[in-house]
Specification:
heterodimer; A: 112 residues; mainly beta; six-stranded mixed β-sheet; three-stranded antiparallel β-sheet; 9 strands; B: 113 residues; seven-stranded mixed β-sheet; four-stranded antiparallel β-sheet; globular
């Protein structure tokens, strides 16, 4: 059982927007603005898409955005494209908890 | 560009040990820590631990305490993760990552008799 809760799957049509939620607790997501999101294509390593809740690394499309409210973080992908189909994982710092970094169980995004 | 190159796939018997390497390039190695994350087949990501490349301080996941050791060699900008007393449920892809931003391609470790 993962520390952060994500929906197992979401889907959308090309051009649409989707949002993936990531629910934690007041000890992790709710306490720190250190939530990140990763995209993982089959057989590939995770790729950082969002860090510190809403910041995008250089080279990541501005179609990807992040936000947080209370104990829940969200990743929104606008203008869905076929290449966005992948697994997405959230990750949060949890301070002095063990482990200090916790992941969500992952969400499979299907582009219809 | 920042790159982490990991060692090749390993097949081990239960009870054995494995040591995975992760060679960094494109940045000042001692300015960042290295995290290790594993992914069992068809499963999610699991944080295993972190090592400071600056001073060697470590922080391990409680469930792996006593079985895992993370080290670095600053002369070669390489991080290592050793896992001992391997079990079948240690079968996974093991990733190193620079502070969880840049990731290596992963090393598959299979534990089977």
């Amino acid at each position: 059982q993962s520390a952060l809760t994500q929906p197992a799957s979401v889907s959308g049509s090309p051009g649409q927007s989707i949002t993936i939620s990531c629910t934690g607790t007041s000890s992790d997501v709710g306490s720190y603005n250190l939530v990140s999101w990763y995209q993982q294509h089959p057989g590939k390593a995770p790729k950082l898409m969002i860090y510190e809740v809403s910041k995008r690394p250089s080279g990541v499309s501005n179609r990807f955005s992040g936000s947080k409210s209370g104990n829940t973080a969200s990743l929104t992908i606008s203008g869905l494209q076929a290449e966005d189909e992948a697994d997405y994982y959230c990750c949060s710092y949890a301070g002095s908890s063990t482990p200090p970094w916790v992941f969500g169980g992952g969400t499979k995004l299907t582009v219809l | 560009q920042v790159q982490l190159v990991q060692s090749g796939a390993e097949v081990k018997k239960p009870g054995a040990s494995v040591k995975v390497s992760c060679k960094a390039s494109g940045y000042t190695f001692t300015s960042y820590g290295i995290s290790w994350v594993r992914q069992a087949p068809g499963q999610g990501l699991e944080w295993m631990g972190w090592i400071s490349a600056y001073n060697g301080n470590t922080n391990y996941a409680q469930k792996l305490q006593g079985r895992v050791t993370m080290t670095t060699d600053t002369s070669t900008s390489t991080a290592y993760m050793e896992l001992r007393s391997l079990r079948s449920d240690d079968t996974a892809v093991y990733y190193c990552a620079r502070e969880l931003d840049v990731w290596g391609k992963g090393t598959t470790v299979t534990v089977s008799s």
